[in-house]
Amino acid sequence: YGDLDIYSARISGYLRNNLNSKKPVIVIGHKHPYLITSFVACSRSGRAYVPVDSGFPTARIKDIIEAVEPELIIITDNSICKDSLLLKNSAIQSIDIADIEKIISKEGFKDDESTWVNGEDDYYIIFTSGSTGRPKGVRLTSNCLDNFIDWAVTLRKDVRLDDEKHRIYINQAPYSFDLSVFDLYTSLFTGGTIGAITKDMQSDSEELYGFLKRMNPNIWISTPSFSEIALMADIFNQELMPNIEEFIFCGETLTNKTAGKLINRFPKAIVVNTFGPTESTVAVTGIIIDEDIIEKYNPLPIGIPKQGTYIYIMDEDRNILNDGEKGEIVIVGDTVSSGYWNNEEKTREAFDSMTVDGIKYRLYHTRDKGYYKDGFLFYCGRLDLQIKLHGYRIEIEDIESNLLN
Ligand code: AMP
Questions:
Q1: Burial 326-339 (b: 16+ CB within 10 A, else e)
Q2: For residue 28, how far is its CA from the centre of ligand 1 (angstroms)?
Q3: Ligand 1 contact, 379 CB (< 6 A)
């Protein structure tokens, strides 16, 4: 944490001294510590960051660069060839690991709290699949992130914010996927440790289980698909991770079978199902899944809305439906995105506002289908052609449009 503080302050000083605009900074890499350091540096310099995993296809990275038109790209992966991103003849500057090392070794760059990102400034912009074949940049403000963290840290069995226990978090999602915001920021906020699982580890079971044993984590945050892969080997049990307290899931359906297996293999841990789109800062509902819930409901509930969020089920004419009736899940609240980057048309289609108890909130049409029962929200598929593949969101029209091109 000491290094993170000093290094991010120095990089933020570099950004303040070398950039003319407050344009978002694209940060490319895969789980490198400088990736996180760069995120913090951007925020300290008053700039939003756009996380891009280096595993993305080059064409996708170029689409994002084209959409953002950044002044600077930070590359924290030496396998990325700058020239392949067409930086050569453009005005876009870039810095890599060697440059970062020079910057962080120099004293003299001073942090200035008055420049930090805050309030309704964009904190990060995450690009997701777009039906036109071009990725959509979802803008999340500093307020959105604050409101999300306030809730996310309470998703524990024994919540005590003054609890000074040091916790180790398992990060599975790449930082370009909003699920990673869950582990990254709850961990940073509570002074925890992040054990980031790399792409290589995910395809080498021996390395993966060895890493989990060495990390001995307390909190696990992943897509359900990833835990299903981990569950394939019998050694994935309480003995491998004796300190595990909690499994938190988001991003796709958690099945009764997977939740049941986890409770069986990890009798000391709790399993939490959460739901939410990138457009409303990671997750907006949560519920602890125990044996009673597994027995009573199939599919499992996705929970109850977090504080500051109101969720309605609406029909095609945007009338609010009653309990038990199926319709679109509409999110109203303090973590809803301020819209898509440079894309007014898509923003107008999906976003609106609503006043609840005298407070005006942003509103997002998820195109998810759901219903309320017994006070819980349930998810039952999509109203459009979006799918999830290994936890990643893809609009089928995105593929179609690229094939046609
Ligand atoms: P993303 O923006 O990548 O996080 O994807 C958001 C979408 O993932 C939602 O709109 C849902 O379709 C799906 N999703 C998220 N959480 C859950 C969940 N707990 N159960 C089922 N689907 C989910």
A1: ebbbbbbbbbbbbb
A2: 24
A3: yes
CA separation for the pair 85, 277 (Å, rounded): 29
The contacts of residue 288 (CB under 8 Å, 6+ apart) are 157, 270, 271, 272
Structure tokens belonging to residue 137: 């940049």
Q: Could you read off the pLDDT of 329-352 as tens digits, one per residue?
A: 999 999 999 999 999 999 999 999
> What per-residue confidence (pLDDT) applies to 367?
97
Nearest to 123 by CA among 77, 178, 73, 173: 178
> Ligand 1 pocket, 251 CB below 6 A?
yes
Q: Is the pLDDT of residue 161 over 60?
A: no
Average pLDDT over residues 284-293: 97
- Going by C-alpha positions, the residue among 246, 370, 261, 354 that lies closest to residue 310 is 354
pLDDT 10s digits, 95-149? 999 999 999 999 877 778 899 999 999 999 999 998 888 899 999 999 999 999 9
Rounded Cα–Cα distance for residues 42 and 46 (Å) = 6
pLDDT value of residue 85: 82
Atom of ligand 1 nearest to the CA of 285: 19
HSE of 74 in the Cβ direction (CA atoms, 13 Å)? 33
Q: How far apart are CA 155 and CA 282, in angstroms?
A: 14
| DSSP single-letter state for residue 312 | E
Ligand 1: which of 393, 394, 395, 396 to mutate, most ligand atoms within 8 Å of CB?
A: 393
